[in-house]
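Objective 1.3, modelling of assemblies. Example input:
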Amino acid sequence: MRIASGVDVGSTQTKAVMMSDNGGINILARALVDTGANVQRAAERAFDKCCAEAGIQTGDVGFVVGTGYGRYKIAFGNAQMTEISCHAKGAGFLCPSTRTVIDMGGQDSKAISVGANGEVLDFVMNDKCAAGTGRFLANAAEVMGISLDEIGPLSLRGKYPVKLATVCTVFVESDILSYLAQGKKGEDILNGVHLAIAKRTVSLARRINLEPEITMTGGVARNCGMVHALEEVLARKLQISPDAHFMGAVGAALFALEKLDQSFEFGTWKGQHATSGGH
Amino acid sequence: MSEKTEYRGSIHQSQKDLMLNWYEQLDRAATTGDPPTVSMMISGNCVELLEGFGAVPLYPEVNALQLAIRHQSLDPILAAEDLGYAADNCAYVKADIGCMLKGITPTGGKLPTPTLILCNFVGCNTYLKWFEHTAKLTGAPLYVIDVPFMRTDEPRKEDVEYVVRQLKETVEKLEQLTRRKFDYDRFRQAVDCSRRSEDLWSQIKHLARSTPSPFDAYFDAITLMGPLYVYRAKPEGVEFFETALAELQAKRDAGHGVYEREHYRLVMEGPPPYPYFRTFRDMFAKWQACAVASTYSTVGGLWEFGFRHDPDHPFESVALHMIEQNVTNRNYLQRYEQIRRYVEEWNADGVIIHFVKSCRLFSAGQGDMRDYFTKQLGIPTLYIESDLEDPRYFAEAQTKNRIDAFFEALEHSKATALRGSA
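Predicted structure (tokens):
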């Protein structure tokens, strides 16, 4: 049995997934930790936790692919891939008929056009600005004085969404405070917040070819208010895998399995080892 | 694995010598008032006309990019912002104005107050304001040549006549300012030198059609662009491009490329991020990706598709060059067509669009351009954003992430195609 792992070091959270190939590919375990200031340590903690969860020793893992912004900081990683390739790969595996992926993470959002083999055909990302990302929602939650987990369900109760003047992560604070001062209900403000982000994300996603089945990945996929807002703007249901949050790590683990299988032994990718100082 | 490769022939040193000599002439002009100098925009420049007066061009853009590539652009930019320039104003303008305010020059030598500020307005509206400001700051006289924008496929006869009339007015203006008589024969000889330099430059650019390409037509081409703008109308320019062609031809004939193995061939659109020039280049070198053509290298003139200055019709050909044969004065459909031809005829795998935050001229509409190439032509196209002069707009991790993802996708597609054909 071949065992491989994918570790996705995101700006907010670090995800690790352990997968095995024993005639069929299975997810053995998942682990999630906050990234914090020490990126390398976060990767180690997530990986160790995942090994423990799977009941294996670190030495049993044949290959580790790192992804996410901290991928080059994973000292024990054997190779790196961008999260764009990994989200596409993961979505292609878990939702095989999906040809479009919308990934909303802590500090970026992206839309990916995916081929039949989970390969990236095209992608677009937000620019340096964090508008339209998890960070924007976190700021909104903070201003409202509630937790990030609560804003989604609360927004679903909103019937009269406010119109935000900005999708700027910094200026949203004054926008929300202004609506609170006007006596608007929290659920209507949050409903407006989610809709504003959904419209911006869909506008980004329209720059690639939007296919009928769209899969949402990334940490924001856990926010039911965001999923609902996106579905409203897109006028269609989204595919949300229970592993949506782990999709990058799933993709990375799949690449790692292919590497063990020697079926992904081409071109320059094999040269991107952590130890080669590629960053 | 990172691979740092750039073309280092004898022309690399000649280019440095030529550009140093140019700055020395400018320094002398600042001290003695001789030779006369004329400030101009690179795009659609009429350097040939200056030869008729023995005058030397002064390009604010070249000064600005020289500062940026030496990581010295932020101070003058901040000085201009202190004066009231907005964050999203052209960073070239701010660097130039900031340099005047703080007395900074790229080489440490002096720069003269130009004898004439000649606003050869081609497509870039910002230039009008830029030159108005420099005229106010320096007290130098300003003359604007109004070049009609290319809204049609071919320039109209009236447009050419309109520009020729203004060029002749410029001659009169320069005769008054320099107190020198315009030497028409020297002007014609300059136009003939340009014709020869352009022919050589065009041949160099066509060498990149070979696989592997003997040079990078974006990063290496920039080395050759300085002499193209300052010296093309002089015998030294012709000699420089003869050497360059011979060197690169020999490299091509020996089958030597930019990399040990050329993995990808690209077409680049937009100016480079000069403050991070080396870092940006390395991001492509890591993937052994070579630019085989670039639109930026046609800012000063578009010669690879056949246009040449014509000594038999010197004024008319200078006018045609200003109206039609430089990338900034051409409409978007013409820019699309230029890139499409590069992809097809230079056999490229994809297009990289570098959006410059502070340059509306180059960047407005590039989102549509990306859509056109990806959706209508099916050409893999990457869109990345930073700036050509302001280091604050360059996000290294994000830029690298997008570039890596683009090549991973190309890699994956190639592998999938290979598996399919196996």
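The radius of gyration of chain B is 21 Å.
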